[in-house]
Specification:
DNA binding; mainly alpha; Homeodomain-like_sf; Arc Repressor Mutant, subunit A; two-stranded antiparallel ribbon
Length: 163
C-alpha cells in the first residue's frame, strides 16, 4: 500500500500515526502487530466480521468500535457496545428515544437506560420531552455588532446555519 501512496496517507487510512507505520515497515515496532494487521486486513484486504449490533462490517471498523468502547468508561464503568454508541449518536442528533427504539427494534427502557448512564458518565446528550422536540440544545446566545454579523451571515448561510 505504501508503494502506491505515502506512508502518512496509509497511516491515516488505517487509523494509526505515520511514525508507527514507519516503525512497522522497518521492523522496529516493539509492540504486538495484531491491531495493525487487523486494520490492514479490513482496509486493504476487505476482510469482514459479523457484529451482533451492526451486522457484517470490515474488521478495521470492528476494531475502531472496540477501541471506542474501551475509552468510554464513565462513573458507572459503562462499556459501550456498537448498539449503545448508535443510540447515543442518534440522541445527540436530536432523535427522540421512542423513535430510536422503533428504528433499532429495541425496548424504549433500554434506550432510556443507555442515555441515563451516558449522561451520568458526562456525555452531552440533549433532554427530550414526551413526543416533543429537544428542550436543551446547549446553545448560548450572544450579541455581535452589525459589521461582524454582516461578515458571518454569508458564511453561516453557506453552511446551512443562521446567525
Amino acid at each position: 500500500a505504501c508503494d502506491e501512496s505515502t506512508q502518512n496517507k496509509v497511516a491515516k487510512k488505517l487509523g494509526y500515526s505515520g511514525s508507527l507505520i514507519s516503525q512497522v515497515l522497518r521492523r522496529n515496532y516493539a509492540a504486538k502487530l495484531g491491531g495493525v494487521e487487523e486494520a490492514v486486513r479490513g482496509v486493504y484486504m476487505r476482510q469482514t466480521v459479523e457484529c451482533p449490533a451492526l451486522g457484517t462490517i470490515p474488521s478495521n471498523e470492528c476494531r475502531q468500535w472496540r477501541r471506542k468502547a474501551d475509552r468510554f468508561q464513565g462513573t458507572n464503568t459503562l462499556q459501550m457496545t456498537p448498539e449503545q454508541h448508535k443510540i447515543i449518536e442518534m440522541a445527540q442528533g436530536g432523535e427522540p428515544p421512542a423513535e430510536i427504539a422503533r428504528r433499532l427494534g429495541v425496548h424504549r427502557q433500554k434506550i432510556y437506560k443507555t442515555l441515563r448512564k451516558a449522561r451520568d458518565a458526562g456525555t452531552a446528550i440533549p433532554l427530550f420531552r414526551r413526543g416533543g422536540p429537544v428542550v436543551d440544545t446547549g446553545m448560548k446566545r450572544l450579541s455581535v455588532d452589525r459589521t461582524t454579523y454582516a461578515a458571518l451571515e454569508p458564511i453561516a448561510a453557506a453552511r446551512g446555519l443562521s446567525v
